[in-house]
Amino acid sequence: MVRLDPHSEEPPFAQLRTQLTAQIADGTLSEGDRLPTVRRLAGDLGIAPNTVARAYRELEGDGLIVGRGRSGTFVTGPGGGQQPTAADREAAAEAARAYARAVRSLRISTGEALVIVREALRA
């Protein structure tokens, strides 16, 4: 289940993307699971369909989901089906903590920091 915080600095599309990414990573959503349609999820969350569509586009760009036209949108899994090792996860977590410290010291907002990370991951 996804819950959006209207008081968060993070925009709704980013909250949705973050939560779906976490659910895919922790196995709550598994490879092959079908996601709700953009309109249905937007209605359930009380947000604009374009907000959900943006989150889905970014998740697709990350290789976590795939849209199959009228058939729907499906989870492909973290790393396109490859599971990271515990050591890989810990190394990534440490890198994320270091990044968070740097972002705080630079007084960059959470939303902007996430934009920077997404751009870096796409590069």
Automatic annotation (TrEMBL):
One matching Pfam family: GntR
PROSITE patterns: HTH_GNTR
Name of this chain's protein: GntR family transcriptional regulator
Domain HTH gntR-type: 10-78
Keyword Transcription annotated: yes
GO molecular function, one term: DNA-binding transcription factor activity
Annotated organism of origin: Bogoriella caseilytica
Keywords in alphabetical order: DNA-binding, Transcription, Transcription regulation
This protein's record includes keyword Transcription: yes
Annotated SMART domains: HTH_GNTR
